[in-house]
Design brief:
Two copies of one chain form a homodimer.
Chain A lengths: L3 E6 L3 H12 L1 H8 L3 E7 L16 E2 L2 H5 L6 E4 L5 H12 L3 E4 L2 H17 L4 E2 L10 H8 L5 E7 L2 H13 L3 H11 L7 H4 L2 H15 L8 E3 L7 H9 L2 E12 L2 E12 L11 E8 L3 E8 L3 H21 L14 E2 L6 E10 L5 H11 L4 E9 L4 E8 L2 E2 H12 L4 E11 L1
Parallel strand pairs in A: 1-2, 1-4, 2-3, 4-5, 5-6, 8-10, 10-13, 10-18
Antiparallel strand pairs in A: 7-9, 7-11, 9-10, 11-12, 14-16, 14-17, 14-18, 15-16
Chain lengths: 428, 428
């Protein structure tokens, strides 16, 4: 049988995993697809660097075009990262009739629509399961498993670095700065951690999840993102005392045809299944009108988990090649995107206020909430003797985001509120 | 566009859900598959019975053959249950070139191989996602999501009734008999609960999961099944004290090419993700060589969750009809089945023994474990004044099942062991 030839762009951690799985599981793969799968060419930055796996020298190249334009290569597997230059490679590969499997969340979040359209026009497959939540097959679950349902909510712990940091802060009472330093030493966080800790990485993944879940072209600009760098030990202590964990959640919601997508540190009730997802693990919670609550849990990153998703995509592409049905994939948006305004985005909120410790303060503060029609679920006032002030913790009932912003603006000019220490969305 | 015509066999709870979703989500479905999906005929037991959903009288029939032999019906959806008679209907439908979607775990566990072969021969699809774990799309996850990996272990809470009973016993300290009665009153348990509580229902589902996960034709007879009717309040109390929950787990394992599949009440460490799956929820934990630990959680039964899976299968069949690629599905076993012997099945065990309360007893008991090379992780002896005897709790290290059986046989003839009160497999 004619082998299927693969060109691999990138031989870092994930690329190495792809080679290991394709070569190590060759018999199993061949039993499933009916043909050998051969890695024909590999793009590397330096051919002379020593590798943890044996690769023939003549398979390696430092010239991407040698792979993109290789007449015998059927499928491109892109694990090199980068956006603009990589997009150029992928678009040309599709134009040349090559199918593409990619793990590149940045690329798909920023240029997914253009790439999907190009693929369709050239009857090519473009699959990207590994771009979100590593080894968890969440994209095919949304597209195929829940094809019959209307998904109303997707909540994801989709960034392992921040979940590792928050888990350590919660379990050990450590500070953000200390845990970040430790995560960097262990290789769980980059030396420049901005993309992870400021929620940008999670926002890119939520763009992809919301697009597939809601069948509408959600763009990265539609996602409001807030990271974890301002989360304090104190916030986590208060959260735990009230029965919550602090998690960086991506939240995509749909009501009728109105969508909102955001990423923010969120207080999640400890009884909610996503609250106990700890360490570098990822999980995606999906609520559908018919199916109700579901959750999918697994490794969000790492050489082999991510490579598992890539090679599963490769198997799907090869099966389509055999059946002659490439370029017919679902997951293309067929609904008009309508975003919620801040008035339409509703959730519970937690607020921690530092206030003057004297009579009448609580009445004035609760009046502000009443003025903007925010009703309160619980209020706790306690003195903080160390600063001769009181602290007030408020958990609201469902309130719209615009009203909460007006409440916060009013506190600015209210002399008894010395400081709004923390504001969190609340779930579960 | 020519509509796709569906014949529905059965209009009980799940059948009603299928009608609701197909009719309620018609626009979404049509956007995905490009054709209307029409429920053409529905098999009912009594045409004159009143229904919770409006169905044209002329769509209903009491004659299954009118649907099976209907010239215009493309897809049969079988939600009537039953085995031998239903198998006859499905085989004839396949012979007539009709595709089949079924929720029938009994049928697929007992006759899956024959039905899959018939479908392939007639180039028809046969899909059965709803047969295991209701709304959780676990079958397509095993077949597609993990196509590139080697699955080494599948552990499932795949029976909602028993998980509800064990959860209540754990959370409220109630007895098995009391909770079973309550579950029957609530409609969570059948009036004859044997199939659920004796682990037979779970065994059927594990047969399907193991066949797909390990690519070998596992038969129902290969699954050893033990139910929960002998689980006591006392067992659960001991388990919790030691940091475990008691769960009815289906466990399918593979080492090299050797397989074992079993269902039994199991002590699961509280830190394991499957230990916190409570109530009627289902979960399937999958360990793969490359992907590591994953878990999939959701509703295991119910009108709409189960119907979600059935209609997702229907969407997949219709897409294949459009592409002209029916009957090419994966999931057919390509590996020879080799079952482990009891000597090769290894796990930790918990034993609770009632023993004579005098000197030297512990030495004699631990000597029996040593005789059969079972090493012990922990031993706890305590007096039970109410019966003037002592109790010994033993947790072993990994031991093979044959050795544990020999230990238990030896205790029979050991005068100081008055009773082996409980034996549990231990996981996590």
């Amino acid at each position: 049988m004619k082998p299927i030839k693969v060109g691999l762009l990138g031989l870092g951690t994930v690329g190495t995993g792809v080679v290991r799985i394709v070569e190590g599981h060759q018999d199993d793969l061949q039993s499933q697809v009916g043909s050998p799968i051969v890695i024909e060419k590999v793009l590397v930055q330096n051919k002379n660097k020593s590798r943890s796996i044996p690769i023939d020298a003549d398979k390696m190249t430092e010239d991407p075009w040698e792979i993109i334009r290789h007449p015998e290569i059927d499928v491109i597997v892109e694990v090199m990262g980068g956006v603009e230059q990589t997009k150029e490679y992928i678009l040309e590969a599709l134009e040349r009739g090559k199918h593409v499997v990619t793990a590149n969340k940045d690329l798909m979040a920023m240029h997914g629509t253009e790439i999907l359209e190009k693929a369709k026009r050239h009857q090519c497959d473009i699959l990207y399961e590994a771009s979100v939540a590593g080894g968890i097959p969440i994209l095919r679950t949304l597209v195929e498993g829940f094809s019959s349902d209307r998904i109303t909510k997707i909540m994801g712990i989709v960034n392992g670095t921040t979940n590792y940091i928050l888990t350590k802060m919660s379990q050990e009472g450590a500070s953000y700065a200390d845990v970040l330093k430790e995560a960097q030493d262990l290789g769980y966080a980059e030396s420049d951690p901005t993309s992870d800790v400021e929620g940008l990485d999670a926002a890119r993944k939520m763009t992809i999840l919301a697009t597939l879940g809601f069948h509408a072209n959600v763009a990265l600009e539609d996602v409001s993102a807030q990271g974890i760098s301002s989360v304090t030990k104190e916030d986590i202590t208060y959260a735990k005392r009230l029965g919550y964990e602090v998690k960086l959640l991506g939240i995509a919601e749909r009501q009728d045809d109105l969508i909102s997508v955001s990423v923010q540190p969120t207080m999640v009730k400890q009884s909610h299944p996503i609250a106990s997802v700890n360490g570098v693990f990822n999980a995606v919670y999906v609520h559908g009108e018919a199916v109700g609550e579901t959750m999918f849990y697994g490794a969000g990153a790492g050489e082999l988990p991510t490579a598992t998703s890539i090679v599963a995509d490769l198997v799907a592409v090869v099966k389509n090649i055999k059946l002659g049905v490439n370029g017919k994939q679902s997951g293309v948006a067929y609904k008009e995107k309508k975003l919620k305004t801040d008035e339409q985005i509703s959730s519970k909120y937690f607020l921690l206020l530092q206030v003057a410790d004297r009579a009448g303060v609580l009445a004035r503060i609760t009046q502000v909430f009443a003025d903007f029609e925010v009703s309160l679920e619980s209020v706790l006032q306690q003195p903080n003797p160390s600063i001769a002030q009181a602290e007030i913790i408020v958990i609201t009932h469902d309130a719209n985001k615009a009203a909460i912003q007006k409440v916060l603006a009013s506190f600015e000019s209210l002399d008894v509120v010395h400081k709004v220490k923390s504001v969190y969305r609340v779930e579960g």
